[in-house]
Amino acid sequence: MAQLGQRAVDASMLGGLVAEFARAAFAEIDSVNRSALGHTAPVRILVDGRDAPIEAVNVRHGVIEFEWQTLDDPLTWIWQTLKDHSPIRSGRYRDSHKLMADGNDVTPGGAIPQATQYVFVNEQPYSHKIEIGRTESGRDFVIQVPNRIYERVAKEAAARFEAVADISFAEIDRNPSIIVKSPNNTFASAAQLSTGISQPVQDFV
Hints:
Elements (H helix, E strand, L loop, with lengths): L1 H36 L5 E5 L15 E6 L3 H13 L12 E5 L2 E3 L11 E5 L4 H6 L16 H12 L5 E7 L2 E7 L8 E5 L6 E4 L1
Antiparallel strand pairs: 1-2, 2-8, 3-4, 3-5, 5-7, 6-7, 8-9
Helix pairs in contact: 2-4
């Protein structure tokens, strides 16, 4: 019984040491990110792949992941602004804006996965005409709202979120698109700490 009790105490103490190390590593990276962004970014912490206290990590072969949610604000803002700037005669164009994370469909407002590139696109067959097209008389294809919707939103978003994202306008298969990437600076969007029998190891992404 005494031997089992000692093992439990040792495991508890080791868990505390791992948690202390993880918090120190997090504080160091978060400080660098705060300096790069000019503000504190929201962060999600996963312990062995789930939402749990840091102390709950498997001390022998566990993983603690920190994910800074810096692109949520620009992605949500772009999504809403595209809808606000859209013509609403039928609503089909307004409801056809899509967000993709590394090619996978994402629902703005929900959980946004980590990705190297996010793309907003409208695949309605007339989206190109709405963006830059004109009628035979020479007037803009849409008169309800100004044209070049994606281009204007991309330009405004790039200026508004310059510190946290690289945002640009593009055309993909003639469809107007907005491309959003993490900025190429000192910011770390994610960090991973792996535990082991020897000592924890950090891996910055």
